[in-house]
Structures are given as structure tokens and as C-alpha cells.
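ok so for the tutorial part 2 we go from a plain amino acid sequence to predicted C-alpha cells. step 1 is just haveing the sequence, like this:
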Amino acid sequence: MRLVALCAVLLFLALPASAQQAVRIPLPLEGNRTLMLPAQLYLPAKTPAPAVTIFHGCGGPGVNNARMAQLLQGWGYVAVVVDSFSPRGIKDACGRNWPTQQVAEERALDIPATSLWLNTQPFVKGSQIVVMGYSYGGGVALLSGMNKVIEHKAQSARGYILVYPDCALADALGPQLRPRAPMLFAMAELDDWTPVTQCQAVIDRVVRDREEIETRVYPGAHHSFDALGLPIRYLAGVGNRSKPGGCCGAHYGAHEPAWRAFVEDVKDFLARRLPLDR
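step 2 — the prediction. this is what the C-alpha cells look like for a chain of 278 residues:
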């Protein structure tokens, strides 16, 4: 095992710093089992560097996740896009397979597992990690970062960036909340899939360290405002926790002004919470 680990380290050191690499992240489970999470790793030109972990929405890893990872890489951060679905046999959870609360809480374990793995890698500055989650993945990140729903040994992240998050998942957290680390809620004004009102209801339940929560609401934007090139459309068959019974339908599509503002907000948040050495 030591020889294998040494070879893995040497392989990483030998690869070009700008390369995109496929990796596998171990998630220990009960019964002495391990689930291997596929992920795409983006290394900046200079390492070791702080890292941002990216967790996808109900459709699985998307172009928007890869685009953000490439931006982060260019800014000087390590970025990892984690695939939570493939090892669990999930292809798409937006429709009939809309994830339950239990499934979301199980997926939340992917977050500390990824941080734990990164903290063992030579290209990451230890304990300098921010978690970024999109839509369903943003709701899962909220479960991990807002309250101690899932017990784990990993250190808390330096911050959480929640991109149009599924805040309804936080209903199970209780009436009084406290963030584990600074949080940025990046939301769309016209979002009828993960609406601003649901996230505001979560924020209203924060009774300690509320000053650590930042909100951005992008005017005129719908869900998936970062899906550049995709016109606004209505999906009639998608699950929707903001509607009675969790069904159905929502709008989504790109809004370039919101995307540009979002990029600047992310850059600013990271500069304050996860500064790079100059």
C-alpha cells in the first residue's frame, strides 16, 4: 500500500500543473465498505494551493461545473468536481428520482470525504478548502455546513458557496441554526425551482454568527443562470420541493449578466475567505 501511495504522489508531481485529471475519492461506509467517488481534478500552475470542491445538481456533473472549475484553476486554486451519482447508480435525479431527505443526507458525506482526501494531497494547502454546491448539491452543502446533521471527523471548510441551492433540504435542521463557516448564497430573483424565499426562511432561523452569511440575488435571472447559451425554458416533469407535494415543474436557463456578477462575487468571497499567496 505504501508503494502504491508513493507512486500516486510521484504521478501527480510528474503531470503538468495545468492538466485536468480523473481521480477517485474514497468514502468509507458501514460494514467496512468503501465507495469510490469519481472526480475531475484541476490543478493551477502553482501548487500547493487552496482548494474548492464542487458538488453538482440533480442532473449530475455539468458543463457549468467544469466551466467554474476552469475559472478557479486559472485564478490559482485547486478545483475538484465530484461525481456523486455514478458510484450510486444514479443517472438523473431531476424527475421521477427526485432525491429524498435521506438520500441527500447520505450524499452530504461526500463533502467531508473529499476534504479529507484533499488534505492528504501534496498539491493542496492543508485545511484551506471552500465547498461549492449547485442546486441540489447546494442543498447538500447546506446540510453539511449549517448544522451538525451528519457526524464526521473532517475539519470545517473555510467557507461555503451555495449556488441557487435547494434550501428546502434544510427544513430538517431544526428551528435554530448556526453556520459552521462563512456562507455565500448566490440566488436568482425569478427562480421557481429553488426560490429565494426558501433560502431566506433558512437564514431567518440562524441565531448565531448570522453576520457570516452573505446573500446575492441576481435580478431577472432564473435557475441555472450560469448555463450559458441555454434559453429560458419550462421543464414540466421535474421534481420541485417548493411546490405542494414536491411536484412539479420549473423554469431554468441562462442569464449572462447574472453569470458575470456571480463570477465576481465568487472571486471576491474567495479572496477574503481563501486568499492566495502573491
